[in-house]
Amino acid sequence: MLRDEVLALLKAQGGAPLSGEAMSQRLGVSRAAVWKAMEGLRQEGYVISSAPRRGYALEDSPDLLSPGELMDSGRKIGSNLVCLDTVDSTNNEVKRRAVDQVPEGLVVVSAQQTGGRGRRGRSFVSPPGGLYLSALLKPDCPLEQVSALTAWSAVAVCDAVEQVCGLRPGIKWPNDVILDGRKLCGILTELELEGETAALRYVVAGIGVNLSQSEADFGPEVAPVAISLAQALGKAPRRAEMAAALLDALDKLDRDFPGQWDSWLERYRADCITVGRQIKVLRGQEERIGTAVGVDHTFALVVRWADGSEEALSSGEVSVRGLLGYV
């Protein structure tokens, strides 16, 4: 869409002016078409100044999600971008679009989910005010390494939040991003395998970040364990700014996986706040108390039981709860 391409050019200028003639030449359209796109952006709330012989400059932007806001020719992840106001689940939308072929770089972003899902079949509360993003990844690795993408995604989210907000959250093993002792972000990764060969087709990494929600938005059941960036910082960042940072972080993840395994493992261990805490491990109907003592090379949680024995727990087998509050 021409409007998105014009917006991407303006954003790339960093506030410096760009002439209508230069834009028309780069995009291969008339100056009248550029002017029409500019007026459409202004109607959406973009503040665009113009001056003779200088051109157009982007001065302020509304809190909108659009391809024009997020385009970056240097990224593979997000090169195929879908922006929605609402969807049942961004993970579901990615999988629907990959039924016949696997679109390289596909990302679906939404401002709301009506059927968000979490780990182990639980629902994921997804009210307006959050940012919900799913990326299709095609890692070239043995199948047994793919489960680590959940942990890598948590590190990527911490990178994005730090880039935008200047503070770094922690990670509750295996993949909840935590700020001030409450959940800031949930992550759900899902695999799609070939029916006949069981070869990996793709992985969907789904991320939901709480941006501007209030306690009332979360509701009485979720509010005690959830937090938004607005609650923590007093002001939420723009959704497009956070989405762009997430795309940057996921693009780096995509380039690094699995070759930079040791580097990402070291960063995950530094971010993981579960280690050193007493925890309750839930496995089916069984509950057992132990102490988290480390994260092994496969990103499994190493737990020491009361009898002194140790066990490495897979995130697919168990749930871990804190004994003193959510973490």
TrEMBL record:
List where this protein forms a coiled coil. none
Record CDD domains: BPL (cd16442)
For this protein, what reaction is catalysed?
biotin + L-lysyl-[protein] + ATP = N(6)-biotinyl-L-lysyl-[protein] + AMP + diphosphate + H(+)
Per its UniProt entry, what is the enzyme's top EC class, as one word?
ligase
Give the EC number(s) listed in the UniProt record: 6.3.4.15
Alphabetized, the UniProt keywords read: ATP-binding, Biotin, DNA-binding, Ligase, Nucleotide-binding, Repressor, Transcription, Transcription regulation
**Gene3D superfamilies this protein is in?**
2.30.30.100, Bira Bifunctional Protein, Domain 2, Winged helix-like DNA-binding domain superfamily/Winged helix DNA-binding domain
Which ranges does the entry annotate as DNA-binding region? 20-39
GO BP, sorted A to Z = protein lipoylation; regulation of DNA-templated transcription
GO molecular function list: ATP binding; biotin--[biotin carboxyl-carrier protein] ligase activity; DNA binding; transferase activity
Enumerate the Pfam families for this protein: BPL_C, BPL_LplA_LipB, HTH_11
The GO cellular component terms are:
cytoplasm
Q: Which InterPro entries does the entry link to?
A: aa-tRNA-synth_II/BPL/LPL, Bifunct_BirA, Biotin_CoA_COase_ligase, BPL_C, BPL_LPL_catalytic, HTH_11, Transcriptional_repressor_C, WH-like_DNA-bd_sf
What region holds the BPL/LPL catalytic domain?
78-258
Q: What does this protein do?
A: Acts both as a biotin--[acetyl-CoA-carboxylase] ligase and a repressor.
Per the record, the similarity remark reads: Belongs to the biotin--protein ligase family.
Protein name, entry field: Bifunctional ligase/repressor BirA
Q: Which gene encodes it?
A: birA
